[in-house]
Amino acid sequence: MNRSNYGFTLIELMIVVAIIAILAAIALPAYNKYRIKAAEGACQAEMKNYANFALTAIYTSVAIPPPPKNACPSADTATDLDTPITGTPRAPGVAVTTCDMHTANCTL
């Protein structure tokens, strides 16, 4: 019987699919954590930038503009030095960023 085998057997393909499924199950939770951290980091950076800009506007007696709503769709508008501003990141981010207006330091 001179029969040549070309291709893969069904068992070999099932093993490859199972390995890919296991790798995906390991990688997806880590990927989601990185997405959350990226959203929160972008919001923190945007709020820090706005706090610095608002701080400059307060010290130079210029009207304080509203905050940008790119990475933080719900961000407070700065009013004075004694009121901290907060911003909530876009989904999937959950940690609220709070900025002290005296120093423009922002924390999650």
Q: How would you describe what is shown here?
A:
Pfam families: N_methyl. The chain has 108 residues and is of the alpha+beta class. It has one domain. It is 46% helix and 12% strand. The protein contains 1 helix and 4 strands. A 4-stranded antiparallel sheet has the order 1-2-3-4, covered by helices on one side. A hairpin with an 8-residue loop joins strand 2 and strand 3. The termini are far apart. The mean pLDDT is 91.
Number of strands: 4
Instruction: Give the overall shape, derived from the CA principal axes.
Output: rod-shaped
Through-space gap between termini: 71 Å
Q: What is the averaged pLDDT score?
A: 91
Structural class by sheet pairing and helices: alpha+beta
**Residue fraction in strands:** 5-15%
pLDDT below 50 for ≥5 consecutive residues: which ranges?
none
Provide the spatial order of strands within the biggest beta sheet: 1-2-3-4
Radius of gyration from CA coordinates: 25 Å
Query: Which H/E pattern describes the elements?
Result: HEEEE
The profile of the biggest β sheet is: 4 strands, antiparallel
Helix content: 40-55%
Number of distinct helices? 1
- Total separate domains: 1
Organism: Thermomonas fusca
Pfam families: N_methyl (PF07963)
InterPro entries: N_methyl_site, Pilin-like
Keywords: Membrane, Transmembrane, Transmembrane helix
